[in-house]
TrEMBL record, chain A:
It comes from Salipaludibacillus neizhouensis. Pfam families: Rsbr_N, STAS. Keywords: Phosphoprotein. PROSITE patterns: STAS. CDD domains: RsbR_N-like, STAS_RsbR_RsbS_like. This is RsbT co-antagonist protein RsbRA. One of its GO terms (molecular function) is oxygen binding.
From TrEMBL, chain B:
InterPro entries: Bact_StressResp_Reg (IPR051932), STAS_dom (IPR002645), STAS_dom_sf (IPR036513). PANTHER family: RSBT ANTAGONIST PROTEIN RSBS (PTHR33745:SF1), RSBT ANTAGONIST PROTEIN RSBS-RELATED (PTHR33745). It comes from Salipaludibacillus neizhouensis. The lineage of its organism: Bacteria, Bacillati, Bacillota, Bacilli, Bacillales. This is RsbT antagonist protein RsbS. CDD domains: STAS_RsbR_RsbS_like (cd07041). Residues 1-112 form the STAS domain.
Length: 275, 118
């Protein structure tokens, strides 16, 4: 970092800090930070500005392992908005430029000087935004994985009979997963009949129906039967209104009826015990 | 390359152990029909467990074999179609509509018995 700037910033450290703290406190109400105690807020502000001022002495490489990163990671963990960071840095830049250009005669209106300050702050902005978005991407990824695990389980309920309960919206990616799990599961459990339960699927449009039809065709090819169960009245209405032809494979209104007909297909039945 | 066709009482058992190319498939079609004629078989099981890939031509030939055998009075069951193969077929829009299928050879024979009882 340019030594001139470094000296100037360090020299006017107190003024910059004061000015920044004054500006940042104005934003407190719209940053969704009201429920944080005053003391905590002030301490964090103070820590933030001190770390920021210290970064002027560091090179870019050093920045990446700086306590700034640790500080931001702490903020991410306790859930402070990115807004706070970007606004804080904008105000910090304003404070630096204002105070230094007021106090130092020779740097007044010097374009080079402004550029130096900009470079310095912009690097920090980039670093911190990357840090934040990285943590978000990570969260999204973990949630996606969790969703995927819950997405399409195939449960063997009787010998040769398995059930796949589907809950939630079905998109193309999930439909692919459903088909794979379905086929692998059929082979693994040696199922003759598979029940696909769509009780938990909120909307069945042409795309979803298409995926379900494809899955059941594929199941038939590997040598099992597919029964679609859990068709609610509103789903039945949409299916007919959309003109989707489900005539080729059996459908039942509830899982219970589906299981009964699956048992029938495998030459079994449920009988009550006589006491 | 010719695919061996085994006779078991009234049935023919065929296990496809090689990758099917167009020539092999056509030869296979001819052999099956010839064998049905020779033995007067009532049922055929074609096991595809070790087939990893089926293209549209092979799928058509298989469908034809099924239709032709039916014409000659022999019911055909396809068994052991792998998940990957099933997905490819569905993606290509080939549904092999009227072809009975079963999970493996054992269930295929049961299925054939069922079909012949009807």
């Amino acid at each position: 970092m340019n030594s001139v700037i470094k000296d100037m910033v360090l020299e006017h450290k107190e003024d910059i800090t004061d000015s920044w703290l004054k500006e940042i406190s104005k934003f407190r109400s719209d940053d969704m930070l009201q429920n944080i105690s005053d003391k905590m807020y002030e301490n964090t502000n103070l820590e933030f500005v001190n770390i920021l001022i210290l970064t002027v002495q560091k090179t870019n490489e050093e920045l990446e392992h700086d306590e700034l990163i640790q500080f931001v990671e702490k903020l991410i963990q306790i859930g402070w908005p990115l807004n706070y960071i970007t606004r804080g840095l904008q105000e910090f830049r304003k404070a630096c430029v204002e105070i230094i250009s007021n106090r130092e005669e020779n740097s007044h209106n010097n374009l080079e000087f402004f550029k130096k300050i900009e470079d310095w702050i912009d690097d920090i902005v980039n670093l911190l935004v990357t840090q934040y978005s990285g943590s978000w991407e990570n969260t999204v990824f973990l949630q996606k994985m969790a969703l995927k695990e819950l997405s399409a389980p195939l449960i063997p309920v009787f010998e040769n009979i398995s059930v796949m309960p589907l809950i939630g919206t079905i998109d193309t990616e999930r439909a692919k997963l459903i088909m794979e799990n379905l086929l692998e599961g059929v082979i693994e459990h040696r199922s003759q009949v598979v029940l696909i339960d769509i009780t938990g699927v909120p909307v069945v449009d042409t795309m979803v129906a298409h995926h379900i039809i494809q899955a059941s065709e594929a199941v038939r090819l590997v040598g099992a039967k597919c029964i679609l169960v859990g068709i609610r009245p509103e789903i039945a209405q949409t299916i007919v209104n959309l003109g989707i032809d489900l005539g080729k494979f059996p459908t039942k209104s509830t899982l219970k009826k589906g299981i009964e007909s699956a048992l029938e297909l495998t030459q079994r039945e449920i009988v009550e015990l006589k006491k | 390359m010719r695919i061996p066709i085994l006779k078991l009482h009234d049935y023919l058992l065929i296990s496809v152990q090689v990758e099917l190319d167009d020539q092999t498939a056509l030869q296979f079609q001819e052999d099956v029909l010839e064998k049905i004629h020779e033995e007067g078989s009532r049922g055929v099981v074609i096991d595809l467990t070790s087939v990893d890939m089926i293209d549209s031509f092979i799928a058509k030939v298989l469908g034809d074999v099924v239709d032709m055998s039916n014409l000659m009075g022999a019911r055909v069951v396809l068994t052991g179609i792998q998940p990957a193969v099933a997905i490819t077929l569905i993606d290509m829009g080939i549904v092999l509509d009227d072809v009975p299928t079963a999970l493996d050879l054992e269930q295929g024979l049961d299925r054939l018995q069922l079909e012949l009882e009807d």
